[in-house]
Amino acid sequence: MAFFSDRRRRLQLAAAALGLACGASAAAQAATQWVMGYYVAYQRDLYPPQAIDWSGLTHIVMGRLKANADGTLALDFDWDATNGPALAKDIAQRAHAAGKKAILMLGGAGEGAKIRSAVLNHRAAFVANLVATMKSLGYDGIDLDWEDDIDWAKFQSFVSDLRAAAPTAILTAPMGTINLNYQSVEPHVAAIAAKLDRLSIMSYAPATAWVGSGWLSWFNAPLAGEKPTTPVSIASTLQRYVAAGVPKAKLAMGTSFYAICYTGGVTGPNQSTENGVAIRGGDNDFPLSKFYGKNGVYNGSYRFWSAAASEPYLSLPTAESHGCRYVSYEDEAALLAKGAFSRQNGYGGIIVWTINQGYVTSHSRPNFLTEALRKGFIAPNATQTVGVSVMQGDSFLSPGAQKRFDALVTGTTDRTVSWSLVETGCGAIDGAGRYTAPSTQKICTVRAKSVADPTKTATAKVTVSTAQWTPSFSVSRSGTWWVEVLAKDASVASMSVRWPNGTNSPLSLQYRQGGTNYPVFAANYEFPDAGGTYPFLAVSTNDRTVESKLKVPACAHGADGICH
């Protein structure tokens, strides 16, 4: 959904000339730590409700209600009018059963004009509809996500009226980061915060990273380290909100469960972003579930830590599928650092956009990120459990072929493993995970054992065979941007398209056909109206790859962009 991809574009003026500003800080106050995780219906398949780790949350924020200009509400939750509300009720019931609070999200980027009309012209009815919907769906509060086309004076009046109508409801609102070079906190914010339970900061990309105009490469959710050439951090933004009159205990930082990366040969932070460098990945496109998942980009051999920003990053020897060598992401160490900072400085916790994107199904501890949130913010003395997975998963190799296996180890600072083979006569694997298949066809098992906790292991099956993989595909096109590829082989796990400039773009799995279980992938990219032949790369569940040149049909369309 484009509205979610653009949700936090808080630095649309970031290309302005760089100029200096100063901030202030306040004495730390005691604060209860909130961990508010956003859950959105359109990502429900990434994180089924029954899989939610409630121990790592204090509040869940269900996205989203949309305002209509007349003060009524759209309740489809970006799904439909039946399933959306049903899912919202289910999430609230599960939250309450786990002893947690449930909040409804209102708005989001691009929804400001309708919220503005509802507030300016139908405020009493709008407030009444919000309160009634909150009660009918079984929620404890509302998150006021008015991000654009804001009338700040009316926002203040709206919050006051909503508080009067629902004096015991939990009211929260997300705000933008502050660029230390030229931005300041909007004067109405302190009065708005006075009526809220939490004022959260959307301190993650795209609000924290930019290219050109003097910016150096930076991080997705930097805790600190701001300077004129990387002028945004969580710490500096929070300090400026405190200086503007918002109590520390009401302020929550933000992070995201997706990664961003830089093209153009950038290999780490604090490098030039001029001359065509671009930021790729982000919301929906580069979820941490994919980053850490089977055949994901994560590789501990290339992990580095920025002491200045308290953030990890990858510096890869070759570019990944987005064309990037520098990848910024969140891990357990970064979340623990954020929790310690919030607790030690009297702030009020963290929001996460979105928890759906942090569930790593291929890992033995799929909720390891929310487990880190629990330890960082809620229960600092909690003991973490070690988890292990083999990044490559089950694999297919020809006899005598070689492959490097890598392990993801969580729940400990010691991320090392020992490698072994379960069966005899299965070739050899060294201490770095470099495997050589036997000369004969066989099914073998590679095993990774945690050094920190030898009781925790993970395995991957290796099929050593001379068999060829020859799946077939068909391509259809319904619009100028929308192309679907049917893979006529149920073992196809992922697909991407290679563009003429050599970069790859992933396709999204839409659904699997009934009966055959064949996957259908979609590409929301700007293929030319004339169509053309493009290389598409398919990867199987056991890591076989095949490249097929597929013809994208031409599209004769009208103003609606629909192919006729």
Automatic annotation (TrEMBL):
Location of the GH18 domain: 33-380
Task: Keywords in alphabetical order, please.
Answer: Glycosidase, Hydrolase, Signal
Q: Which reaction does it catalyse?
A: Random endo-hydrolysis of N-acetyl-beta-D-glucosaminide (1->4)-beta-linkages in chitin and chitodextrins
- Highest taxon, organism lineage: Bacteria
Signal peptide residues on this chain, from the entry's feature table: 1-30
Q: Return the Pfam families for the record.
A: Glyco_hydro_18
What are the recorded GO MF terms, alphabetically?
chitin binding; endochitinase activity
GO CC list: extracellular region
Biological process (GO) annotations held by this record are: carbohydrate metabolic process; chitin catabolic process
Q: EC number(s) for this protein?
A: 3.2.1.14
Question: Per the record's keyword annotation, is Transcription regulation included, yes or no?
Answer: no
Cross-referenced InterPro entries: Chitinase_II/V-like_cat (IPR011583), GH (IPR017853), Glyco_hydro18_cat (IPR001223), Glyco_hydro_18_chit_AS (IPR001579), Glycosyl_Hydrlase_18 (IPR050314), TAT_signal (IPR006311)
Q: Does the keyword NADP apply?
A: no
Q: Belongs to which family?
A: Belongs to the glycosyl hydrolase 18 family.
The protein, known as: chitinase
